Structures are given as structure tokens and as C-alpha cells.
Here is the input.
Amino acid sequence: METGKSINVSYNGKNMTVLNQRCRAWSHPYDYRTPQKATLSSAGCGVFSVCHCGQWLTGKAFSPEELADFSMANGGRGDDGTDRPALLAAMMEKGLAAEFGFSYRLDGLRNDRETLRDHLLTHAGVALCNLRVGHIVAAVDGRRQQGEFQLLIIDPYSETLDPRIAPIVREIVPESAVESIQRNDQGCVLGMQTQYAMYWASDATVRDFNLLFAL
Here is the structure.
């Protein structure tokens, strides 16, 4: 059976509602100057990841539909997540960031890995980042293991089998399994595929991250 809109995952004392972007039932509009009428399912990785960050920090689940509407109204919907600093700045200005349990220091997209590592190791907060171009995930914890720094990722699109992500995956969280139906170009069902929405990954490819500081 194909995984629905969310799954419940318990990990390291955290109870998370992991939002499954692969589920087409996430049909709420999330459009940005396109004729394709984007939805949360097709374009909502940033929204889902902010919700994951907030729940990791507060234990409270948040509405991605409400955050999507707020994002579109406040300049936070952009290609490749390039406008996510605008969304975070608007969340600070309107007091919404505090509800999500973080503050944001308005410093844009950063690429200083050592700063990110220290941020996660000291539990100063969490981060939004890209492990590949075009897709935003939540980095919620960090560790040093086997001579490298690793991030605990909550990935709404569960890309552990993606050839761009698979080489850096170090450990999956079994409870976070996402089942999806695979079809060919003619719509014929070919089978099921299992990927994982929570996993530890090397920080070798991480880029364009925003640090969110826990309140």
C-alpha cells in the first residue's frame, strides 16, 4: 500500500509527524509565476521542511497548508528555495517564527560548514539546507562518526535512492519508510519502491543553509 500524507516516527526521544511530499493528496496550491499550478506535493519541500524544523524544536505539528499560504503572501515562494530567507524573515517579523520555536538572524543563505557543524553539535538549533540543488530538507542533529561529520536529515521527498543522495547516506531510520507506486510513461504500474524520509548523511554536499536558533 502506498504511504499516505504523513507517517509517525519516534527517534531519540522525539515523536515526529513526517510529512510525505510524494503523496499527491498534498494538492494545496503552492504556485509561483508558473502555468503548471504547483502544489505542495510538487513544490512544497521548503514548507514541509520548516514544519519539520518546528516540530523537532517544539514537539508541535504545524499545518503546511497554512504555512504555504503565508509563504506566498510574504515573498517566500521562489525557484530552488532562493526566497526562503524572505519567508524566514517574514516569519520573524510577524511573530510566526516564535510559534515554530526558532529565531532567525536574517543572514541569508550560508555555506560555512564549520558553523553548521557547531550549530548542530551544540544543539543551538536546526537548519534548512540543500543536499542537492533544487530540494530543501531539514537538518536537525549532527554527529562525528567514522572520520566524517554527519547530519540527521528529515527529507519530505525521501530521496535515499536518488543517485545524487544515495552515496552520502550513512544510516536510515527504519520507521521512516515511504512506499510509492512506480509507473512508466504510459501509466502502467511497475511495482513499489521503498525509500526513507529520515536518515544520517555525510555533510559533503550540503550547501545554502539557513540556521534556525532554538528559543
User: Anything to note?
Assistant: The mean pLDDT is 93. The radius of gyration is 16 Å. The longest helix spans residues 45-58.
